[in-house]
Amino acid sequence: MSSTRRRPPAATGCFLFWPSPRASSPSLCCRSSSSVSRPALSSRDNSPKGTPAVTARESTIAHLEIAAAAANDKGAEDLVALDVSGPLPFVDIFLIATGRSERNVVAVASEIEDKLNESGVKTLRREGRSEGRWILLDFGDLVVHVFHEEERLYYSLERLWKDCPVVPISVATPAQAE
Known about the structure:
α1 (58-73) crosses α2. This protein has 178 residues and is α+β, with helices and mostly antiparallel strands. The protein has a domain at 50-170: 2-Layer Sandwich (Beta Polymerase, domain 2), CATH 3.30.460.10. It has helices at residues 58-73, 102-118, 149-155, 157-160, 174-177, and strands spanning 77-83, 93-99, 125-127, 134-138, 142-148. β4 (134-138) and β5 (142-148) form a beta hairpin. The longest helix has 17 residues, at 102-118. The protein has a five-stranded mixed sheet. It contains five helices and five strands. It holds the Pfam family RsfS. Keywords: Cytoplasm, Repressor, Translation regulation. One of its GO terms (molecular function) is ribosomal large subunit binding. Its main location: cytoplasm.
């Protein structure tokens, strides 16, 4: 009896679809870049020499801070924000977070969605909530990926988008809150 590794289901209809582990590159889905026009972005060079500057819009960075705080409130781990506005003309930032269990993944995603909706940001698309292993939330210029630990290691989005600058996130830790 051969043992096969259980592969997480691919999130079809999302921005990132990796059809198989042997595929050389992901396919982009949902919105066509040709139908979206973006104004010119001003480059803010707050990064050290040799690293790309963050070019995401200020409004998207504000939404990122709300999403990161909500994720942190529900116990998300390893928050990473990537400025993907260079290679993807229809998205500014990917926020990647990890939940410890399926319930935690769903709770983190729900809290992020609730807080952004309360601040007036509309959810355009939601994928993966029923499985609770990889939930994708599309808010237009901000796309949030909430992974279970195993799926985050398997899909490794940070490695895929390694050429994109990391956007600093200021989230208060419990020690700072006291």
